[in-house]
Amino acid sequence: MKGRVIAFLGPSESGKTTLIEKILSLFNGKLKNQKKEPTYSLKTYGITIENIPFYFIDTPGDENFIGEILWAITISDLGVLVVDSTAPLKYHIYRIFELAKKNLLPLVIFVNKIEAEKTQWAQTICDLQDMLEILQVPVIYGFNTNQPLFLVDLVTKQAVKERGAKLEFEPYPPQLEGKIQTLYEQLVEVSAEAKNEFIEKYLETGSLTQDEILEGIKANLESMRMCPIFIGSAETGLGITYFVKRILDFYPKRNFPNLDLNSYAYLFKTHYDPYAGKLSFARILKGSIKSERVIRTSQGKEEKYTQIFIPKGDSLEAVKEVGEGEVIVFAKVEALKTGDTISEEPLSSGLPVPEMPNPMYTLALHPETRADEDKISGALLKLQEEDPSLIIYRHEETRELLISGLGNMHIEKTLEKLREKYGVKVRTSLPTVPYRETIKKPVQAVIYRHKKQTGGRGQFAEVHFNIFPLERGKGFEFIETLTGMNVPRNYVPAVEKGVREALEKGILAGFPVVDVKVQFYDGKSHEVDSSDLAFKIAAFHCLKKALEQAHPILLEPYVELEIFVPDESVGDVIGDLNSRRGRVLNLEKEKKITKIKAQAPMSEVLEYVLTLNGLTGGRGYFLSKFSHYEEVPPHISEKIIALSKTQSSEG
Ligand SMILES: Nc1nc2c(ncn2[C@@H]2O[C@H](COP(=O)(O)OP(=O)(O)OP(=O)(O)O)[C@@H](O)[C@H]2O)c(=O)[nH]1
Ligand SMILES: [Mg+2]
């Protein structure tokens, strides 16, 4: 493939964006805005180096945006894991490594900030060896013998001199021979193990040529047997030219799934630009794509387009054709969606899409004004297109508009966009818990008479009910067992309607009433004054009266949680669950992670992601789904009822 795509990965503030910008400025890339702020969504930069089109994908470092990272991992040839050498290793590095391993994405490690006063880069390299279960071998090393730090290339065993984008080598001070020889042998040995012919040669002669070492590294990288380690400073540029040069030397080939088409691309990012409108970023995995054609998607859509673009520096450039391996950008092509495989030819299926992480935090959105209300659905739809890890829906029971994401920050940043890009203002709250009401005791012979005499025709109806509690989850049952002619049967549907209406709002706190059976067994009617309406009203009030006598209680939803935590946090997490009325169902251990299966009342875990982050230092995550309803304990029930009373009296 002609075009190459590299994903820059790693924790927040490790220097990913700075590194990309440094490479661009060293190799004459155009940069329009260099802003120092955290990255929250994928951004693609383009630059040509030694006649090869390169695309760098900058990713967010915060765990809240891990959904974005998955798209970058899916379509890149190589990942650069950027690590801050001035701080202890963050768990995120392990997450990235695991994701890369799972997706078979070759990784190199760039240990950054080695010019900083606080750097501990040699220690960082050792710590990485402990954290990641993969062979890691430095290809370059630093020495402090004569200030400032200088770098020695272990492939050629020479000191590195960087002059802008040019790389020169020179001999290193002889007193370093011992240490450098040890590091060199380590690199040669690992490279030799990549290929049988190299092993033989190495065993015979004890050495490999430079080209053989580079080929060995490339083979190791492709098989994910090893991560080469670079060191440098994105800020000052130290080690950056060397880094780029070596990436060119051992650029790995990644295998993507093959489709039986002449040309196709994979759409990995949708972005709504305030000026250019909808932009769709895709990597061409086979063939090339020209301007002014028709594009078809794996979702069965098709659309004409005129212009196409490629990322150039940090902006876009209009072109006539984009080649294999490159990143193509479509503007305002509505049919395109992130995750689509696209082609000029008809296609029946596409490449697999990454599974988005489970949402762990949900808020209810309340548009501030009528105008906000009108704009919100359109805007949210666009935000969700830009970020497929968001889930937006209306709750069936509470009718609230809910937004779910990975954490507080994920939703906060989304709402910031909603406000700034789309001018929609919303208030947020935790979602309303969909409590329900039910009864505990059967009641016999509840009688209600509805009678009204106002001038002309009056109203008359009388109904007799028995009511019974039903098993949890059974809902509602209505039976009619009338005998004799007290109530003409044609009033039965009106009675059932009245009962159903009464069940919509329970008598305790106005929540829907469930799991009751109503038996309509008798009543009275009047030849002239009875009507459907009169019977409906009588049934409505009779049921309310019956509920009062039937020991009404509140029910609350329980969720089932699968919580994944590092072994050392298991005790704390279980202790916390107990304090939230949760119950642990079982524990399963896998490597250093324990899966805790538990149930807890929904009301107690609305902000569980924050708690879990605190308890596990950001390492834990969980899946949750609705489980069942259970009776609310009396002391909590009292509070909910009191709250509903104040709310309804406030209007
Ligand atoms: N001393 C020093 N500081 C650096 C270096 N590289 C980056 N920084 C600083 O580290 C901070 C974070 O840099 P960014 O490039 O924004 O980090 P990032 O990895 O893109 O962070 P996110 O986008 O939040 O994930 C900035 O203040 C940079 O100036 C370096 O080589 N040395
Ligand atoms: Mg960044």
Explain this structure:
With 651 residues, the protein is of the alpha+beta class. It has five domains: 246 residues, Rossmann fold, CATH 3.40.50; 80 residues, Beta Barrel (Elongation Factor Tu (Ef-tu), domain 3), CATH 2.40.30.10; 67 residues, 2-Layer Sandwich (Alpha-Beta Plaits), CATH 3.30.70; 114 residues, Ribosomal Protein S5, domain 2 (2-Layer Sandwich), CATH 3.30.230; 82 residues, Alpha-Beta Plaits (2-Layer Sandwich), CATH 3.30.70.240. The chain contains 15 helices and 34 strands. It has an eight-stranded antiparallel β-sheet with strand order 16-15-21-12-13-20-17-18. α5 packs across α7. The chain starts with a strand and ends with a helix. The mean pLDDT is 95. Bound molecules: guanosine-5'-triphosphate and magnesium ion.
Key structural traits:
651 residues, alpha+beta, Rossmann fold, Elongation Factor Tu (Ef-tu), domain 3, Alpha-Beta Plaits, 5 domains, 34 strands, 29% helix, 33% strand, elongated, binds guanosine-5'-triphosphate, binds magnesium ion
Summary?
With 651 residues, the protein is α+β, with helices and mostly antiparallel strands.
